Amino acid sequence: MAIVLGDNRYGKAGVRLVRVDRGEAWHRITDLTVDVALSGELTAVHLSGDNAHVLPTDTQKNTVYAFAADGVGEVEEFGLRLARHFVATQPAIGRAVVTLAEYEWDRIEGADGPAPHSFSRSGRYTRTARVVHDAAAGTEVVSGLRGLTVLNTTDSEFVGYAVDRYTTLPETKDRILATDIDARWRHRGTDGDWAASFAAVRRALLAAFAGTYSRSLQQTLYAMGRQVLAERDELVEVRLSLPNRHHYLVDLAPFGRDNPNAVFLAGDRPYGLVEGTVRRDDAPAALVEL
Ligand SMILES: O=c1[nH]c(=O)c2[nH]c(=O)[nH]c2[nH]1
């Protein structure tokens, strides 16, 4: 029996970057967290401590800030620039994975209208991207969002499920359906209008959530993924991770009050977790699973 080094990668995680674009009067901010992960000919560093192939993670962090000096643009674009740079300039590095999260800021509405240089952090959702650039296998861009919390007050039921001796859940024909959307979608190519694509996918996810009469969160998941692919030719695959944010009808009978689907306890934990991928059947193989 031999002991060998398996899959490995290394890089700087959690690089926090805020870029200010200063127009004459109006400022704009871009707020990102960037993770870089490199892999390639890295056996020697692990086995004998030879660092010749190791571009320090500190240098990777510096590169993120240096590249931001030329502007950030869309997260996908920034990720592509960085990933290509590491592979092109480091002969030992065959693959770079750059993962980005962008936090949204809203302009503050001042007494005299929109404030030119004041912002409040929006908690609505986080936009994400992951770029894989591999010297041999090519380039792959995955966009996404997480933390987009949505709720339907009706048009959701859950009946007819499998029952065993541990089942206590009552069937319901009318319940609240709520979730925090965590979605990633893989692009066919490596160029395009990233901003327009993102906005359209977000709209499609929301429209499908709102417009689907739901017999389960699983069915809603598929409807959401399907709508995104039906509307967006540039995409080949959608992955959704949907926590079921249970809302429990409170029993008000002890207080002599009925509760016609009005008062709920918003559960925290445990929560159902429904995850799935919806893809075109001719989608090219992914470099890295969604
Ligand atoms: O939409 C649902 N899917 C489930 O699998 C499930 N399980 C459960 O207890 N409630 C629900 N709701």
TrEMBL record:
SUPFAM superfamilies given in the database record: Tetrahydrobiopterin biosynthesis enzymes-like (SSF55620)
EC number: 1.7.3.3
Binding site for O2: T57, N244
Transmembrane is among the record's keywords: no
GO MF, one annotated term: urate oxidase activity
Residues reported to bind 5-hydroxyisourate: T57, F158, R175, Q218, N244
Record protein name field: Uricase
InterPro entries, alphabetized: Uricase (IPR002042)
One Pfam family cited in the UniProt record for this chain: Uricase
Reactions catalysed according to its record: urate + O2 + H2O = 5-hydroxyisourate + H2O2
Entry binding sites for urate: T57, D58, F158, R175, Q218, N244
This protein's pathway: Purine metabolism; urate degradation; (S)-allantoin from urate: step 1/3
Residues forming the catalytic site: K12, T57, H246
General function of this protein: Catalyzes the oxidation of uric acid to 5-hydroxyisourate, which is further processed to form (S)-allantoin.
Alphabetically ordered keywords of this record: Oxidoreductase, Purine metabolism
GO biological process: purine nucleobase metabolic process; urate catabolic process
Protein family per UniProt: Belongs to the uricase family.
